[in-house]
Design brief:
The chain is built from 15 helices and two strands. The protein is mainly α and 320 residues long.
């Protein structure tokens, strides 16, 4: 990731200027919160996808930087709202907005970020890029609601799981790639190919996140956290479909219990490992990675393409 950021040093510096300008406010409380958000933002993965996709397909321009700022605004808005919904006090080891300023302020901040993103595009007549990213936000909301609906019944099939993560995670990455490509080409066919590329990468990204729940490394969230929160992920879905009836009933009984004990969570993790859920999920992740690289290979060799391949490698090889 450091090498990719070094390659994009000039473009990321320009993006920072554009993003900081986009979140400016004359309301002192809001301006202070925006400065806190800028200070605590993460790896900027989605803006990097926008800029790299733009470079892969053409010359990066002001529209590319606006697209990168828009996706960071929308992504940040969804994270702020997610923390309110989840009653989360931390985000990336920093206090969440709702922990510091309470829920009402956090919801309004999320709304502000969303409106700033919409205005950024509308004021510059970036209608196609706004359509791409507004569709992603719609998909994310539908994915979250579908997951909530299915979590109550514990009837998530593998097909539904992929539908959920395609909406929840892959939609924002795919829209970042699509918007970046469109910003430098205004070619809908190329934009659609990059959207499909981003979708494959986004699915691989989420499977990797799911696998962290069954590991032993410090990845910023406790091992077994998805199990405690009753999130049905691919390793567990595979296990439930490939274990005997008694084991399945025991897992479901533990899973339904809101007060899971440590040894019960360990039992589920150990069973998933023994049944082959980790191996199956890893193979699935690598299949989506290969499909993403196959799409990239439709493009001419370039420094941008090399760095995009490195970014895909980072998605599947990362330790956090």
């Amino acid at each position: 990731m450091n090498e990719i950021k070094k390659y994009l040093r000039k473009e990321l510096a320009e993006f920072e200027i554009n993003f900081n300008k986009a979140v400016e406010s004359n309301v002192s409380l809001l301006d202070n919160i925006m400065k806190y958000i800028v200070k605590t933002k993460g790896k900027q993965l989605r803006p990097i996808f926008v800029i790299l996709s733009g470079k892969l397909c053409g010359e990066v321009n002001e529209k590319t930087y606006r697209a990168a700022s828009l996706i960071e605004l929308l992504h940040t808005a969804t994270l702020v709202h997610d923390d309110v919904v989840d009653d989360a006090n931390k985000r990336r080891s920093f206090f969440s907005i709702n922990a510091l300023w309470k829920n009402k302020i956090a919801v309004l901040v999320g709304d502000y970020l969303l409106s700033k993103g919409l205005l950024l595009s509308l004021n510059n007549k970036d209608f196609k890029i706004l359509e791409i990213l507004a569709t992603a936000v719609k998909d994310m909301s539908e994915g979250e609601l579908l997951q909530a609906e299915k979590a109550r019944k514990l009837d998530i099939t593998e097909e539904i799981y992929f539908n959920i993560i395609q909406c929840k995670t892959a939609s924002l990455i795919s829209s970042a790639c699509s918007a970046g490509a469109y910003s430098t080409t205004e070619n809908e066919f190329i934009s659609d190919r990059m959207k499909l590329f981003g979708e494959k990468v986004g699915i691989a990204f989420q499977i990797k996140d799911d696998l962290f729940d069954y590991g032993k490394e410090d990845v910023g969230k406790p091992t077994g956290n998805d199990i405690k929160e009753k999130k049905m992920t691919l390793p567990l879905i595979y296990t439930l479909n490939h274990c005997d009836k008694a084991t399945k009933n025991k897992i479901i009984s533990i899973f339904k219990n809101p007060a899971k004990k440590k040894h019960e969570v360990k039992y589920i993790i150990d069973t998933v490992v023994e049944t082959g859920g980790i191996r199956y999920s890893t193979d699935s992740m690598m299949m989506y990675k290969k499909q993403a690289i196959d799409i990239l290979n439709e493009f001419d060799d370039s420094e941008a393409k090399t760095n995009m391949i490195q970014l895909v490698d980072y998605i599947t090889d990362r330790n956090y």
